[in-house]
Amino acid sequence: MPHTASRYLTEGRRVGLRPFSYDDAAEFTARARESKDLHHPWLFPPDTPAAYAAYAQRLIEDPAKAGFLVCEKEAGGALAGFVNINNIVEGGFLCGALGYGAFAHAAGRGLMREALDLVVRYAFGPMRLHRLEINVQPGNAASIALARACGFRKEGFSPKMLHIDGAWRDHERWALTTEMLTGES
Fold first, then answer.
1. What pLDDT, in 10s, does the model give residues 134-168?
2. Which end of the chain is more exposed for a tag (fewer CB within 10 A), N or C?
3. What share of the chain is helix, strand, coil (3-state, %, to 5)?
4. Torsion-angle region of residue 83: left (phi > 0), alpha (psi -120 to 50) or beta?
5. How many CA atoms lie less than 13 Å away from 78 in the CB half-sphere?
6. What is the pLDDT averaged over residues 95-119?
7. Which candidate, 148, 118, 115, 114, places its Cα nearest to that of 134?
8. Residue-level pLDDT at 183
């Protein structure tokens, strides 16, 4: 039987990751609208075709960003969420900042844990990054639990760090390095 190439950049048991495309607008925005209650007040993914086009364009065209759609394999590749690596810096830093969100139908099922683990391995492997950071609002217990479960450590607190939902919000800073993942010192 001939081997067929996977449609995913990387995949686990239940999810696969693939890059954003403009063709995903309808499904992504429908899922974002269905998930407003889950996401508020932490994040605001695009929920209109125009907003999605601008968002996807940044993730597709900006070399300082990488966007991954989390696809549920048993559901025919339906979108379960997204993980983005933003502010990618090369040279001596080799770092990126993660942003992510599950869609409501997939929340609490462990799919984002599997996806975040896949993104970490992809970032430290083919992307050759050394460090990943997560900035999360202190009240976002689900996001903090996900960061902790994936091996990130809390490194600090930044008052009024990011402008979200009309106000400057405090954030905890979490990070993971290749050495932490491999157990090297």
1. 999 999 999 999 999 999 999 999 999 999 999 99
2. N
3. 35, 35, 30
4. beta
5. 12
6. 97
7. 148
8. 81
Residue type (1 letter), 129: L
Tell me the CA distances in angstroms from 154 to 123, 147, 176, one per residue in order: 19, 9, 9
Q: Determine if the pTM surpasses 0.85.
A: yes
* Dist. CA 91–CA 67, nearest whole Å: 21
89 vs 63: CA distance, rounded Å: 10
The single-letter DSSP state of residue 90 is -
State whether the Cα torsion 97-54-42-113 is positive or negative.
Answer: negative
Nearest alpha carbon to residue 95 among 59, 60, 134: 134
Please give the pLDDT value at position 3. 46
Q: What is the rounded distance in angstroms from the CA atom of residue 70 to the CA atom of residue 117? A: 12
> Three-class SS of residue 87?
strand
Measured distance CA(72)–CA(76) in Å, rounded: 7
Token output for 171: 């954030």
Average pLDDT over all residues of the chain: 94
Mean pLDDT over residues 31-60, rounded?
Answer: 96
